[in-house]
Amino acid sequence: MAEHSGLVKIWAAEPDNEGGESFWARPLGNSLYEIQNIVMFAPGLHPLDIVRCKEVEDMLPEVIEVVSASGWKSVGIIFREDTSATEDNHIDVMWTLRQHGCASEKAERLRFAFAIPPEADFEKILQFLQEQEEQGILYFEDLE
Which end of the chain is more exposed for a tag (fewer CB within 10 A), N or C? Predict the structure, then answer.
């Protein structure tokens, strides 16, 4: 198993897809791992969640259940190019989310995932994203 600063790769199946997504986690022992980054394609998994994995030799551990939810939530955002939205609009959205303590990871050129900390006002953030979507700046989805 490849190790990087005490972290290992684990994976989770993607619903409605034959594949899965791998991501970094900190091993805790007894088949438990703490997720260390934003999970973009396997809903219901968030940073700092403790998960139990099925461990098979010569394979990445596979998430089978969330043992302890961290309280973080995640949203996916695709910034639009097909409207009058500008790069400045995109930067304003990212800046606003970061002001709420959100972390981000880039999946593709205009596709990002944001992790929202437990202390942030999730409903207020969703309302903000809904307004941005209505203005034609982005599309978003709750990654629950």
Answer: C
pLDDT in tens, 10-27: 999 987 777 899 999 999
Q: What is the predicted pLDDT for the residue at 64?
A: 96
The whole-model pTM stands at 0.87
Residue 123, CA distances (Å) to 34, 63, 109, 126, 130 in order: 26, 28, 27, 5, 10
The structural domains of the chain, with segments of one domain joined by +, span: 3-68, 73-142
- Decide: 64 and 13 in contact? Cβ < 8 Å: no
Return d(Cα 45, Cα 49) in angstroms, integer. Answer: 7
Sequence-distant (≥ 6) Cβ neighbours of residue 28 within 8 angstroms: 34, 50
Q: Which two tokens stand for residue 106?
A: 């880039």
User: Mapping DSSP to helix (H, G, I), strand (E, B) and coil, where does residue 144 land?
Assistant: coil
Pair 103, 89: CB distance under 8 Å: no
- Please determine, for residue 69, whether its predicted confidence score (pLDDT) is greater than 80: yes
* Multiple choice CATH, 73-142, 3.40.720, 3.30.70, 3.40.50, 1.10.1660: 3.30.70
